[in-house]
């Protein structure tokens, strides 16, 4: 049988639909498997040693690709957002999706997703668990504030909330209506529970970050203003191999570059593409807000962080902090919209993160700028 066979798989939790395309004869071979990795692998092996397999990235994860690669089968995972589909194609089935994947793989039109090893995926899951806990805690706080606001009760102890003084004030609030009192106390108890949960996860992240494969990169990224140990841990685990990019492509990968619709002599740019890793993009945008604050010399916490890295990395990080603050100040002088200015800083911050992390992974000296 021909060695040039390309197989597309439409993978679901309990079923796999396969379509094999022989590009010499144009023959299509289809099959369906019900939650059977071994049977799927045997079917793929039957097409010879030169077979290539592809399936879309999705909630089923990377287990199937790892299983195929362990069995000596060349398997790639396609980025769903990069798959081409005809505008007039309004029929979507598992069989058609598998055929489209096989055809695109044969044409070399598949944009591959990097497959992390189990260790990196475990660290990534810890980082994402922290993100979920932070979001849950924020929502719990919003619910408590919403109840008080709806009944005209405002904290008079200053603008800062969720401080010790604010928490004492919250516990002093009571309502005459039993149902309302129960709802408020339950919301407050939930917030306290979420806060304890978040602190517990933060401790675990700090412990793991201090001794893992990305510790050196985490320490370097945390030298940049706005990026805490938790943020650096998230960026390091989400991106993994920084050497895949350069200073320009890292922003594109994270979806921080403008979208574009150009035709003929008309060139129109729109909002950022928001392609790629949404969590890493969020971490950078959150960090970008810090850089509009004045920056003359490193603070105590920054100095402690700079002591954890090499002199070359420390110098590069300080250069980045100065450049990013100057850039933020220039955008503010031009009266740029805050959201656009923040996004521009996040895009440049991504490049500075790359300039710190990539040389460490490559083992080369830190370059100047």
Automatic annotation (TrEMBL):
InterPro entries: Transp_IS110-like_N, Transpos_IS110, Transposase_20. It holds the Pfam family Transposase_20. Residues 7-150 form the Transposase IS110-like N-terminal domain. Residues 221-292 form the Transposase IS116/IS110/IS902 C-terminal domain. PANTHER family: TRANSPOSASE, TRANSPOSASE FOR INSERTION SEQUENCE ELEMENT IS1111A. NCBIfam families: transpos_IS110 (NF033542). This is Transposase.
């Amino acid at each position: 049988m021909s060695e040039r066979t390309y197989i597309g798989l439409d993978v679901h939790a309990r079923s796999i639909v396969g379509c094999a395309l022989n590009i010499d004869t144009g023959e299509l071979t289809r099959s369906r498997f019900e939650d059977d990795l071994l049977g799927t692998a045997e079917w793929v092996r039957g097409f010879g040693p030169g077979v290539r397999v592809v399936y879309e990235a999705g909630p089923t994860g990377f287990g199937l690709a790892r299983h195929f690669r362990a069995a000596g089968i060349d398997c790639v995972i396609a980025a769903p957002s990069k798959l081409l589909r005809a505008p007039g194609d309004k029929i979507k089935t598992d069989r058609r999706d598998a055929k489209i994947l096989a055809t695109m793989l044969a044409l070399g039109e598949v944009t591959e997703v990097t497959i992390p090893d189990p260790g990196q995926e475990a660290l990534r899951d810890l980082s994402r668990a922290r993100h979920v806990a932070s979001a849950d805690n924020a929502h719990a706080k919003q619910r408590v504030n919403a109840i008080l606001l709806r009944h005209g009760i405002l904290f008079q102890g200053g603008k800062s909330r969720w401080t010790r003084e604010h928490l004492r004030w919250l516990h002093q609030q009571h309502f005459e209506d039993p149902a309302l009192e129960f709802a408020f106390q339950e919301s407050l108890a939930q917030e306290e529970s979420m806060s304890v949960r978040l602190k517990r996860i933060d401790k675990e992240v700090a412990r793991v970050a201090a001794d893992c494969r990305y510790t050196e990169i985490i320490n370097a990224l945390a030298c940049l203003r706005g990026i805490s140990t938790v943020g650096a841990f998230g960026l390091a685990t989400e991106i993994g191999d920084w050497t895949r990019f350069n200073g320009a492509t890292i922003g594109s990968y994270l979806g921080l570059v403008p979208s574009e619709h150009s035709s003929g002599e008309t060139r129109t740019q729109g909002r950022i593409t928001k392609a790629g890793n949404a969590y890493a993009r969020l971490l950078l945008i959150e960090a970008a807000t810090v850089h509009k604050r004045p920056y003359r010399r490193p603070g105590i916490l920054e100095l402690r962080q700079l002591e954890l890295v090499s002199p070359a990395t420390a110098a590069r990080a300080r250069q980045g902090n100065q450049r990013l603050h100057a850039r933020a100040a220039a955008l503010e002088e031009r009266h740029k919209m805050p959201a656009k200015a923040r996004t521009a800083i996040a895009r440049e911050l991504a490049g500075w993160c790359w300039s710190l992390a990539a040389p460490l992974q490559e083992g080369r000296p830190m370059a100047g700028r």
